[in-house]
Amino acid sequence: MAKEEAERLLSEARGGRVLVVGDAMLDVYLTGSVDRVSPEAPVPVVRVESEVAAPGGAANVAAGVAALGGECRLVAAVGADESAGRLAERLDQAGVGSDDLVQMAGRPTTRKTRILARHQQMLRVDHEDPAPMAEEDHRRLASRALEAVDWADALVIEDYDKGVVNGALSRRLLARAREKGIPSVVDPKLRHFFDFPGTTVFKPNARELAAALGLEKEPRDEVTLHPLLDRLKCDCLLLTLGEEGMLLVEPSAETRLLPPEAREVFDVTGAGDTVTAVLAVCLLAGASVSQAAYLANLAAGLEVTRLGAVPVTTSELMQALDGRNVDGTTGSTS
């Protein structure tokens, strides 16, 4: 992809409106040092030296959209707790409004706390309620999400299986997006895997896809993947393969491998969210799915080289394109 074309697309995406509906969470990073083992149990003692909180899950996708110059509304559930306030504050700092966060009585804001020492994650502690939302609470959230589709230029459904996404809401959102003629990107989880008809880009990881199909091995071949477009009722399938990159499946083209862009993987947290944000922003600007996937893959390569979920900016993407040769390799052009 020529740098000039990427620059044009990212420029046209500025100010584009993206609706993100899904499971937001607060990511907390406790970083410190280890110099002894606890006398109480055979575990290391981490002396905490810093604490950082950041938007996670669907909130991280929203922050990623804003970092690329898009305008974003995030419809998600939070509790009546301190974590909700911290999440709203971090979203405001990222350029995403918190007006569409729907407070749920009796449910905590999902919070993931990662404990790190010497840049290595030692433990993750999750605070969440896996039970389904009360019917009335989910109706309030669904009403807000359906109203917001009329405002949007692109729709993202980000399912982390924390209660926001269900089949009924997804089908109504996607039907409305289709009627309006706007692109949609879905990041699914296993529970609702086949509940997203009409999606522009369906973006599972290979492990999730194998589990949904009841396969022992992750599908990579053309014969298995192409029929899935009809079965999933999506326009395109973008299958993420972790350190192996991504596979793009389109109806009128051969399945294409997008190799990983990272020179050194430091932390994979947030890479999938980055891919989703870039896809949505590029598609609303009129990019083809292959162009959007190319830039999303490039952005994921930047994301995994740093600690924590830090949104990739337009300028960082352009700098990464500057570092590529005409044939797609990196390094000196001499």
Structural commentary:
With 334 residues, the chain is of the alpha/beta class. The protein has a single domain (3-33, 48-321), classed as Ribokinase (UDP-N-acetylmuramoyl-L-alanine:D-glutamate ligase), CATH 3.40.1190.20. The protein is built from 11 helices and 13 strands. The strands form 2 sheets. The protein has a 9-stranded mixed beta sheet with strand order 5-4-1-8-9-10-11-12-13, with helices on both faces. Strands 3-2-6-7 form a 4-stranded mixed beta sheet. Strand 4 (71-78), helix 3 and strand 5 form a beta-alpha-beta unit. Mean pLDDT is 90; it is low at 325-334.
Give the strand line-up of the largest sheet.
5-4-1-8-9-10-11-12-13
Helix content: 25-40%
Q: Please, what is the average pLDDT?
A: 90
The CATH topology is what?
Answer: UDP-N-acetylmuramoyl-L-alanine:D-glutamate ligase
CATH class: Alpha Beta
Order of helices and strands: HEEEHEHEEEHEHEEHHHEEEHHH
Tally of alpha and pi helices: 11
Compute the number of strand runs.
Answer: 13
What is the 3D form?
globular
Q: What's the domain count? A: 1
Summarize it.
This protein has 334 residues and is of the alpha/beta class. The chain contains eleven helices and 13 strands.
How would you summarize the topology of this molecule?
Blueprint: H1 3-13, E1 17-22, E2 24-37, E3 44-57, H2 58-67, E4 71-78, H3 82-94, E5 101-103, E6 111-117, E7 120-127, H4 135-149, E8 154-158, H5 167-180, E9 184-187, E10 199-202, H6 206-213, H7 222-225, H8 228-232, E11 234-240, E12 246-249, E13 256-258, H9 271-284, H10 289-303, H11 314-322
Parallel strand pairs: 1-4, 1-8, 2-6, 4-5, 8-9, 9-10, 10-11
Antiparallel strand pairs: 2-3, 6-7, 11-12, 12-13
